[in-house]
Every structure is written in structure tokens, then in C-alpha cells.
Design goal:
single chain, about 750 residues, 4-stranded antiparallel beta sheet, 18 helices, globular
């Protein structure tokens, strides 16, 4: 490499490739592939007696990469370290500087909030020194988590179960889920009743009114007798419209996304997990090839780990120009819309999550994106543009109707001016929009008019317990408590589910017996570790380290003084916990024992209590694939004979779909999958292609004329022909694209979306 060349080091190979294209041949852009140094896995790696000094080592397997980075750095005229613009990225930059021997007092640190050509080139012109405040905050967090994990885990092994591990934030998250489950168990439903009247105006228009309260001032109907009393009065009453009030209210758009709100809304609207959301966001941030028409590889969104709702003046101006051209001037607010931070401890280092270029409409580049990329980009783009649009004006009307002293209300609403609602509306934790509950228009009602009552219906209800947390609502609650940061939200739920403390039931999170027992023990022996306020205060202290208001040694010393005393007391009084056992009515078919319920990362299952001597397990879940068995399948089974024992055949439902099975099971275990033609013809012989299950329960596609014809494919054959060579196209297994396998062709495109037939 020539001495005049400049070296740029990033974390991601994908991002490195994008940036190389922007900077050109005068630069060599390489990737560190994340951290190059970390604390050792086999030991604590922290010298507690000497100011909590960390003992970093090179990560195993990165020796060759580090040697290559050193060679490149030594021969380069200038070195720029352009890792992510957050604490973790700053720490990686510091580790790289130390490892490569780059002086820390030199200006070689570069950051960019979006990976676009202009932003990257401008950032390279303005390098700075490494921010040791950011580095100190990251190191303090890493050391805190290491101390908790390494010191607490042996205690859990001796008291609960071997192999357990503890985490500082993860223990709090588990406690939140356990506490909610205890609330649900302790909840006592309370009965209440509602009344709905169907009324008719003098002009014959019908509408609904709901009971609001009585002359005695009471607004609730706690039981059937009180509901019957109101119903009896109402049915014989004279119904008079006492007042009709009209009002208008303005609804403001939601701010652009932060990391946590992006994960929450992606869960509600797209049913994405946090991991899936952040994977797609990372891809959008690092760059996607949009083709020559849109400038090649482009980073489509700003940095996706942020808790700020701030946006740049340039982005605001671009959004306002777009809104004016697309919707009209009346949809543009008089002044650019600014959003206030809801929390005091927000890290405002960079902007909210927004599109890098508002002009790149999702529909224009849809064919260049995978399904997940498009869905998430569309969500981010719509939210950002809507955040800069005019408020929506909602007209409301409330009619107060008196039925001999019993008061009923009829309400209606209508959108007078849609404003931002023309593009986007936020959903709540249940996935519902506010407009979904709008009551619509009321007919003309005038004060003093007498209404005709067509009937009164009384309904019994019971109050409901609080909802279990979903991944989205848990992240929201953690953010409200001030626990965790954008870079840590991603791994919280995967970590506690992998450790067996929490399980999924649909989208809901519920604690396992292990999670409840461990949390009970933690509350007794380590109350501070699982205390919400204490954990939030620690997060604030990490922020103070970043801001230079305190130092890591002080924070770590204060924490360890209390923690070590708790650990010493708990260890002295340690007693083995007996986890509760739930029996099933399933008898183990290997040893005859009654099986018990166990909970793993994917939920509950039946296990033999004689483990490890007997390792038999059975599923307690419904089959993964429900297949409707047709009359033809039943007829086919009736006509078949078992190829092993000659017995009758029947149809059974298994975890991978319906199949033909011998009626003499388990003595005879012969079975055959039920398959139906795909409608696609074999390219070799013209026979029907049918799906089959392989030995590892993986589907593949084969010709119905097998073994005469040996055609088979793991990828799904399509009836559509390749537009380049006319050959057969295949949907790539487990991927989001279609390919042609004809030798020498090389045709490939992103999977078609529902309303697009464009080729990538």
C-alpha cells in the first residue's frame, strides 16, 4: 500500500464496502468485525484490589486480523477509526488505537450518523480525539456486568441449579415479568354492568347512547340489581336531549423513532421481534445497492441506536418540501415541528432514526429491498414524514340525554382535517389505533328534543387483570424506568429466554418456575440488584461518567462495597432451593414414569423425571403445522396397505403436518407423508412436482415419477419462467429472493412483493 494512502477502519464488512465506494482509491477501508479485545471468558478479568483495572486480551480467532490491521496501519499516512457513534463504538475505537499503537492524543476518530456519500466525505475532513468519557462509561458498564455475572453465578449454582448465570439488567427484567405474573394471580375480578340505549330522533334517525350516571351522583352499575333498576326506569322514561356540545381538538403526530419506539412499533405493526427489527435496521443503515438510477449503494436510515428525537434542520427542510409537493401546502406546519425529550437522561449525541434521504420514497426502491428491509424502511419513512406534517383536526359532539334522572351520553367524532393521519398513525400496546375506537358521526340532535327509546340493553362485565408484558411493552417499561440504553435493549429478552427464566406464550412473556424461584432468591439476598430505582440510578451514574461528572472508579467502588457485603451474607446463609414440580398425566413410554412439566427457551414440554438416566421428552404444544385433511386423503388412506406389516392405514397429524400411518403403531412404525402436486411441471420429464419431507424433517421437492425421474430440489420450483433464458425459476430456501439455476444464466431478483412484479 502506498505511503500516501489513508486507512479507514470500521466494524462491519458491509459498511466498509459501502464507505470504500464513497472514498475511492486514495483510501483503504477495512473492517475490525466488532471488538478486537475483551475481558477473558475463563476468569473475572478485573483487578478489584487495584481500582477495578480490567485485564483485556485479544479475542481468540482474531490474531490474523489484528496482524493485518497492524501492517495496514503502519504503512498508512493517516489512520481513521470510524466505528459506530455510540459508547460501544467509541470503546472499540479505543481498543483499536491501543492494539495498533495509535497515539490517543491524535485526531483519528471519525463518526457519521448516516452512511451517505456527502456525510462520509465531510466526516473524514473533521477527525477528533477519542472521547474517553464515552470509553469510561462503556468500560464501567462492562465491568459492572462482569462482576455481577461472575460473582453471582456460583451462588446460583449452589442454591438453585448448576449452569445458571446472572445478569444485572436481565435480573431486573426477569423480576418485572415475575412481578406482573404475581399481580395477575392476585387479581380479583370485580363485576360491573353497562347500559346501551337505542334511540330515535324526531326525524327517524337512530343512534346509540351509553349510561353515564344517575341523579344520585353514582356513575357505576356494580351489579345486576342496579343495572335492572336503571333499565326499568329508562324503558318507561321520557328521553330529552339536555345539551349538545360541539368541540374541536388537534391531534399531534408522534415524534420520529428512537431505538425503543422503533422496536415497539415494529412489534405492534409488523410483528417483528427486537432482533429481527435491529437486523433489518442495521442493513438499512450500512447500505443497500439501489442501482445506478439512485446512486448505487446507499445508507437508507440514520444510526439506529439512539434515544433522541432530535432531527437536523436539513432533514426537516427536505421533509417539508416533500410534504408540500405531495400533499399540498396546507399539510405543512407554519413552523418546523420540534419534539421535546420525555426523559432527562437522554443521550442526544445523534439524531432520531429517520430516512437518510426523505426523497427516497419506499415505493420507489421497494424492488431493491428484501421484504423485512422494505417493511421497516416504510415504517421509518412514514413515521418521520408524518412527524413533520400538520396536526389533525378532530371534530367531536357530545349529547347529554336525560331519562327521568338517569343520564346517558351519545358521542361522535369526525376528522375535519386529516393532517398527518393521511400518512401514518401510531398504535398502542395492543396494536390498536386511536381512530379505531372513534364513534363516527351522530345524526342531528337538538337541545330539548324528545327522543324515542327503541330499547335498552344491559351487559355484564368483569374487570380484567393487567396484561402480560410483550417484548415491546417490556422495553417501553424499562425505558420509562430509566433502565438500559438503546444498545442494550436488543439482547434483554433473548438473554432471559435462553437462560430459561422467561418463556414466550404467543407474543406474551411469562416467567418459568426457574425464573420465579431465582427472582424470589434475588429479592431476598440481593435486593439492590433487582431494585428498579437502584438499577436506574446506576444507569444515571454511567451517564455522568460519559459527561465527565464522575469517574468509573468511584462508581464501581460504591457499587462493589454494597454488593460484596450482600454476597458474603447470602453465601453464609445459602440453602438449596427446591424447584416446584408439575406432573402431567403422560406416562413415559421408555421407563414408565409419570412425566413432569419443564420449561425451556421455547416454552413448556413434558420430560421424564428420571433424567439424566432417561432423557425422554414430549411436546405439550399443538402441532407446528396444521393441515386440513381432505376427503380424498381419507379415501387414499382407506385404499392403502402398510408396506411393512400389511395392516390398514390411517391419517395422523404430526408436528410437520398430516401423514399416512399404520394403525398398528407403535408395533409398526411405517408412515408416509401426504403430498399434493404443486402445479409445477418437472423440467426433466414433465411429471408433477410434489413436496416431500426429508430424513431431517426438512421439506424438499421431487418429481412424482421418481425413481424413473431423479429430479429433486431443496429450493421451491416455480411455474414462472426466467426472463433471461426461459429456464425454471426457484425460490431460494430460507431466503428472500428468486434465482435461475440454468448454467451460465445467473439471473437473481428480490422476492416479489404483493403489488410489484419488478425485477431486481
Amino acid at each position: 500500500m502506498a505511503a500516501s494512502n489513508k486507512l479507514v477502519i470500521l466494524e462491519s464488512p458491509t459498511k466498509a464496502s459501502t464507505v470504500q465506494g464513497y472514498l475511492g482509491s486514495g483510501y483503504k477501508v477495512v473492517a475490525s468485525k466488532g471488538h478486537v479485545r475483551d475481558l477473558p471468558k475463563s476468569t473475572l478479568g478485573v483487578d478489584i484490589e487495584h481500582d477495578f483495572e480490567p485485564k483485556y486480551i485479544n479475542i481468540r480467532g482474531k490474531g490474523d486480523l489484528i496482524k493485518e490491521l497492524k501492517r495496514s496501519a503502519k504503512s498508512a499516512k493517516n489512520v481513521y477509526i470510524a466505528t459506530d457513534p455510540d459508547r460501544e463504538g467509541e470503546a472499540i475505537a479505543w481498543h483499536l488505537s491501543v492494539t495498533l499503537g495509535i497515539p490517543l492524543d491524535e485526531d483519528h476518530r471519525v463518526t457519521f450518523n448516516e452512511i451517505t456519500k456527502g456525510v462520509v466525505k465531510e466526516a473524514i475532513k473533521h477527525p477528533r480525539k477519542i472521547d474517553m468519557g464515552l470509553v469510561g462509561a462503556q468500560q464501567a458498564r462492562r465491568i459492572l456486568d462482569r462482576i455481577v455475572g461472575y460473582k453471582l453465578s456460583p451462588y446460583l449454582w449452589s442454591t438453585v441449579k448448576s449452569g445458571l448465570s446472572a445478569g444485572r439488567v436481565q435480573s431486573v427484567a426477569t423480576k418485572i415479568i415475575v412481578d406482573r405474573e404475581e399481580e395477575i394471580r392476585a387479581f380479583v375480578p370485580v363485576e360491573y354492568w353497562t347500559e346501551e340505549a337505542t334511540l330515535e330522533t324526531p326525524r327517524g334517525d337512530k343512534f346509540k347512547a351509553h349510561y353515564y350516571g344517575g341523579a344520585d351522583g353514582k356513575k357505576s352499575l356494580p351489579d345486576k340489581s342496579s343495572a335492572d333498576r336503571v333499565k326499568e326506569i329508562a324503558e318507561r322514561a321520557v328521553w330529552r336531549a339536555e345539551s349538545v356540545k360541539f368541540a374541536s381538538k388537534m391531534r399531534q403526530p408522534a415524534p420520529p423513532f428512537t431505538t425503543s419506539t422503533l422496536q415497539q412499533e415494529a412489534s405492534r405493526k409488523l410483528n417483528f421481534t427486537s432482533v429481527r427489527t435491529m437486523r433489518a435496521a442495521q442493513e438499512l443503515y450500512e447500505g443497500v445497492n439501489l442501482g445506478a438510477e439512485y446512486g448505487g449503494v446507499q445508507g437508507l436510515i440514520t444510526y439506529m441506536r439512539t434515544d433522541s428525537v432530535r432531527i437536523s434542520a436539513e432533514a426537516q427542510s427536505a421533509a417539508r418540501d416533500y410534504i408540500a409537493s405531495k400533499f399540498g401546502e396546507k399539510y405543512v406546519p407554519e413552523k418546523p415541528r420540534m419534539f421535546k425529550m420525555k426523559k432527562e437522561n437522554v443521550q442526544d449525541a445523534h439524531e432520531a432514526v429517520r430516512p437518510a434521504s426523505p426523497a427516497l420514497e419506499p415505493s420507489k426502491i421497494k424492488r431493491m429491498l428484501t421484504s423485512d428491509q422494505y417493511k421497516l424502511y416504510n415504517l421509518i419513512w412514514n413515521r418521520f414524514i408524518a412527524s413533520q406534517m400538520q396536526s389533525a383536526e378532530i371534530g367531536t359532539v357530545t349529547a347529554v340525554i336525560n331519562a327521568d334522572g338517569e343520564i346517558f351520553h351519545a358521542t361522535g367524532s369526525t376528522v375535519k382535517f386529516p393532517g398527518f393521519l393521511a400518512l401514518y398513525e401510531e398504535t398502542d400496546d395492543k396494536g390498536a389505533k386511536e381512530s379505531d375506537s372513534a364513534s363516527g358521526l351522530l345524526p342531528e340532535i337538538n337541545e330539548g328534543e324528545i327522543m324515542n327509546c327503541l330499547g335498552v340493553a344491559a351487559s355484564q362485565h368483569y374487570t380484567e387483570p393487567p396484561m402480560r408484558y410483550t417484548e415491546a411493552s417490556l422495553i417501553k417499561f424499562l425505558e420509562e424506568l430509566g433502565i438500559g440504553r438503546p444498545s442494550t435493549y436488543l439482547l434483554i429478552v433473548p438473554t432471559i429466554t435462553q437462560r430459561g427464566y422467561v418463556a414466550h406464550e404467543g407474543k406474551s412473556l411469562l416467567p418459568t418456575e426457574l425464573g420465579e424461584a431465582t427472582t424470589k432468591l434475588m429479592k431476598q439476598s440481593f435486593p439492590e440488584i433487582v431494585d428498579y430505582g437502584f438499577t436506574a440510578e446506576l444507569e444515571s451514574k454511567l451517564d455522568m461518567i460519559e459527561e465527565g461528572k464522575t469517574d468509573a472508579k468511584t462508581v464501581l467502588s460504591e457499587f462493589y462495597d454494597g454488593f460484596s457485603k450482600e454476597l458474603e451474607t447470602a453465601t453464609e446463609n445459602a440453602e438449596k432451593l427446591e424447584l416446584p414440580v408439575e406432573e402431567t398425566d403422560i406416562i413415559c413410554d421408555k421407563c414408565g414414569a409419570r412425566m413432569i412439566v419443564k420449561t425451556g427457551r421455547y416454552g413448556k414440554f413434558a420430560a421424564c423425571p428420571n433424567y439424566p438416566e432417561c432423557k425422554n421428552t414430549k411436546s405439550l404444544e399443538e402441532p407446528k403445522t396444521k393441515v386440513t385433511v381432505s376427503e380424498d386423503d381419507l379415501k387414499r388412506a382407506a385404499e392403502m396397505k402398510c408396506e411393512k406389516c400389511g395392516g390398514e392405514m390411517t391419517v395422523k397429524q404430526g408436528p410437520y403436518g398430516a401423514f399416512f400411518a399404520c394403525v398398528n403403531y407403535p408395533k409398526c412404525k411405517f408412515s408416509r407423508p401426504i403430498t399434493h402436486p404443486t402445479g409445477v411441471k418437472c423440467p426433466k420429464c414433465g411429471g408433477d412436482i410434489i413436496p416431500k419431507w426429508g430424513r431431517k424433517k426438512t421439506m424438499f421437492y421431487s418429481c412424482s415419477n421418481y425413481p424413473t425421474c431423479d429430479f429433486s430440489s431443496w429450493d421451491e420450483p416455480l411455474s414462472e419462467k426466467c426472463p433471461t433464458c426461459g429456464g425454471m425459476l426457484y425460490r431460494k430456501k430460507g431466503k428472500d429472493y428468486v434465482i435461475c439455476k440454468t448454467e451460465g444464466c445467473g439471473y437473481k431478483r428480490a422476492e416479489k412483493h404483493e403489488d410489484s412484479s419488478d425485477v431486481k
